Amino acid sequence: MANRTRPTLEKRAKERARQEKRKQKDERRASAKLTRSSGPRREGDEDPDIAGITPGPQPNPWGDDEEI
Predict the structure, then answer these.
(1) How confident is the model at residue 3 (pLDDT cuts 50, 70, 90)?
(2) CB 59 within 8 A of CB 65
(3) Digit-coded pLDDT (tens) for 27-43
(4) Which of 30, 36, 43, 64: CA 20 to 30 A from 19?
(5) How far apart are CA 26 and CA 34, in angstroms?
(6) DSSP classification of residue 68
């Protein structure tokens, strides 16, 4: 019966190691997320297709808005 304790202890040690690794990974992800969100955006980070667009109606790029 003494042989049964060793696999159980090994399983517990593996599970503790897994939990610790998962905890470290979650902490690393949280700190990376905080760093990304708190840092200032660089000038080149904005999508050039939507640069300068404000919410709401946009002016017509062809100037056809004139009603006669």
Answers:
(1) low
(2) yes
(3) 999 999 998 877 666 66
(4) 36
(5) 12
(6) -
| Tokens at 35, concatenated | 């760093």
Residue found under tokens 């019966």: 1
pLDDT over 90 at 52, yes or no: no
Distance CA 32, CA 39 (A): 11
Tokens of 43: 């000038």
Alpha carbon distance 51, 56 (integer Å): 14
Tokens at 54, concatenated: 């404000």
At position 54, the amino acid (one-letter code) is: T
